What we know:
31% of the residues are buried. It contains 9 helices and no strands. The chain has 216 residues and is mainly α. It has helices at 2-28, 34-39, 42-46, 50-58, 64-82, 86-109, 130-147, 153-176, 182-213. Helix 1 packs across helix 9 (182-213), helix 6 packs antiparallel against helix 7 (130-147) and helix 7 (130-147) packs antiparallel against helix 8 (153-176).
Amino acid sequence: MKNKSVIFFGSIWTVAFLLSVVWVIQIKLDVLPYIDQWTREIVPLTHGSALYDFFRVITELGSSHVLIPIAIGAAIGLMFLYRHWYPGLLLLGGSLFAHFLNVLIKQLIARERPSISVTLNAEGFSFPSGHSMISMVCYGLMAYLLCKKIHSEKLKITVETVFGLLVCLIGISRFFINVHYVTDVIAGFTVGFALLYIYIQIDRSFSDLRRRRKPS
């Protein structure tokens, strides 16, 4: 079952990565990807609606002025939970690196946003979505590190589902409030998931090393 899940998610990620490469080429050629052309008409339909207001609130959970305090608080809590500094460092260091990588990619692609808004934390370039990418890493690591300490399988599934849904909603919100294209969001999820996977492998290697070093 586990191998099937790995193959399933690995296949989805590979497709998303290849599509992202195609989109980068199109963006650099000043061509609007087809998926962005098809979805642009949706945005005006939700403006001023209850759905827009909902996403306006949700998007704040991925904004720096909210996410930074949450990440710091979670890091402190994880250090107490694990009785070690490492989980907190992984969470904060991993999220910070994701931020710097996002800024670097944005500078390289230099795609203009569909709209600029200081109040929506939407300035600078657009591709990939920082909210999608950094939320994937930050909330993903929170869920992973929490679940390592949870013994109940049902509770693990609940935690993973809640955090996974939150990350998806944060990314989607950026499209519906018109500060990102759909391709920005998908690319953000794609790069963020790759970083999350790398961090999880680093943590597993570190945990194995600590276990081997413990006196028998």
